[in-house]
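Friendly challenge for the regulars: who can give me the structure tokens for this chain first? No prize, just bragging rights.
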Amino acid sequence: MTLEAEIKTEAKALGFLLAGIAPAVSAPHYAQYLTWLERGDHAEMHYLIRPDAVTARQHPVQLLPGVKAILVLGAPYPPPAARRVPEPGKPRGRIAAYALLADYHSVLEERLGRLAARIQALSGHPLAWRACVDSSPLLEEDYARLAGLGQIGRNSLLINPDFGSWLVLSELLLDLPLHPDSPLSGDPCEGCQRCQMACPTKAIRPDRTVDARRCLSYLTIEHRGPLPLWARPLMGQRIFGCDACQSACPARPGSRPSDAAPGFSVQIEAEPELTWALQLTREEFQQVYGNTPVARCRYQGFRRNSATALGNSRQPELLPFLQRLLSTEKDAVVADALVWAIEQLSA
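First reply, four minutes later:
Bragging rights claimed.
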């Protein structure tokens, strides 16, 4: 067995169901990334335009001097289950499928460390390495494509032939010379525009990038302060993330809960009752969501989103509940969402 094959075997034993090797070259879509930033498509994610972060995404050598190969890993997660039948007077929110799991950053970082130790033992030489999850300044879809794990779809996500886009990527940068895998041929999106048509806010651009200013995943997770008025009716019942473009994609064979990577089991309710969600204390929010990606939107954002979703519920019988909450609400952003929700249900 070659060293490359041994490494992939070790990766799969640790729960990385997909593993491929990419060459340590400049990111193929780096110029497109700069254009995306220049257009302002990153919205208020100012960490993306820090000079050091922009430079780091050009070539992996900025992250690991002497890097010779990139081991790209994919961990699939369960796609959304069928929606529950709504109960009168108990509207439910929707949380994106990936966020129902324990925070994948900590899960994958621990596994990457163990994998690096195994690679060092297999190679028989001292090893310099760096683990990257999606918080690292690396254009990971570029390297996943080069590693043969899939193609970049119209919605900018990697599409794998077996799991669609329902997977989390991570990488190990290595100063170890490894033979790279070959990219897959063909284009799974050729002649298909279902994700663009399914996007509630038309955030997907023709160049296979996403305008974050219009993306409901960005708006419900990263955006701070009041939500734009135009976006509120389009959110529907979403309170964290979206999943619309992924769910519309026909490239999802084999995407079943049983195909999820080991350790990626559901931790929280996919459709929490909105009146419950809106009344959580800060401590209760941390207890329920603190170890999941939902914590990213913060307590204020979660309640803001829940109030907005109640405004889209079309259940005017909830007006007394919302008015009672508004009378004691001290957070101006949440109060703004409550006022909007009351207006929608009073119309």
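DSSP finds 14 helices and eight strands in the chain. The beta strands are 18-23, 69-76, 94-95, 129-132, 151-152, 158-159, 167-174, 238-240. Your move, everyone else.
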